[in-house]
Design a protein that fits this description.
single chain, alpha+beta, endopeptidase fold (from Nostoc punctiforme), six-stranded antiparallel beta sheet, two-stranded antiparallel ribbon, 8 strands
């Protein structure tokens, strides 16, 4: 009987440790949530001005199609992942010029931000603002930047945030 209990406790501890290692975007924000309605977002009233500007910029690009290389200085009819994140951060005053996705692995400061968090790996970058995700891969290929409430696994992504956010 004691062996059976030990076996069950060991199995349970393995399951708990495996489950806790699978972090999602929801694990990186515990502040006031933005309001999401009809594809647009409203930042919490007490959020800093840069966060309100970031939300406004992200709202502006909701209808943009996906275009590889879009948003990096050359004329384009759409935005890619890094072009989207760059656009939002530039408009918020948190980035001087656009960057490719892999460069965001060294952007700002390490770890989650109080309001804005950037998730970067080689080949893809997305961000959360006030707990909502802005991503170009939220609804399949060919879709440009969109807000989504669905959490995303963060394994393999470097977590960064703008200084002061």
């Amino acid at each position: 009987m004691l062996c059976l209990r030990l076996l069950l406790l060991t199995a349970l501890s393995l399951l708990v440790s495996c489950a806790s290692s699978k972090r999602t975007t929801e694990d990186y924000y515990d502040g006031p949530r933005a309001i999401f309605a009809n594809g647009q977002v409203i930042a919490p009233r007490r959020a800093p001005a840069a966060v309100h500007r970031a939300v406004a910029a992200a709202n502006e690009i909701q209808a943009a199609p996906y275009a590889y290389g879009g948003g990096h200085g050359s004329p384009s009819h759409g935005l890619d992942c890094s072009g989207s994140v760059s656009y939002v951060l530039r408009r918020a005053g948190l980035l001087k010029s656009s960057m490719p996705s892999s460069s965001f692995r060294k952007y700002g400061r390490s770890g989650q931000g109080k309001w804005i968090t950037v998730f970067a790996r080689r080949g893809h970058v997305f961000m959360t603002i006030c707990g909502l995700r802005l991503d170009t891969s939220s609804r399949g290929t060919g879709i440009g930047p969109r807000w989504t409430t669905k959490p995303r696994a963060t394994k393999g992504f470097t977590v960064r945030h703008p200084s002061g956010s």
